[in-house]
Request: fold
Amino acid sequence: MQVIDDFLPSYLFKELQSLMMGDEFPWYYNDNIVYDDNGLYQLTHMIFNIREGGICSTCYSWFDIVQQKLGVGHLDRIKSNLNPKTVFHRKGGYHFDNTPSDPYQHTKTAVLYINTNNGWTHIKKGGKVKSVENRIVIFDSDLYHTGVTCTDEVRRVIVNFNYD
Reply:
């Protein structure tokens, strides 16, 4: 597991943050986070998904610099998540982003934090990574992890990358 603060140059990150936190960014309602009937919902925006033919969003080019810095050879998915504030911290559900039977198997997951809040990502065998803007955590896709909601801001926004 690797945590990198100030991952993007400040001016590029601020532009990306402004776009994603703005009132014109398209978010889509999901009835659950990881598992059905867990009592939680989230808003998502699929940016790229190899299983859906590749580019899914006009926002795709915003993430070119992230892919370059990560050294992405094969991209599987880019997905942004918006989790609304909760009264108590709530885990979205432990999961891993890679399954051995997946024909689009990737080896790395990276989570880019768009805003600072008191939510976090918990990676089993890795620990807790706080949500700090312009921080990225990179870990093996077969590690169980979960996002945890925030209680101090209106929303927690991240972008998830799955790649080789």
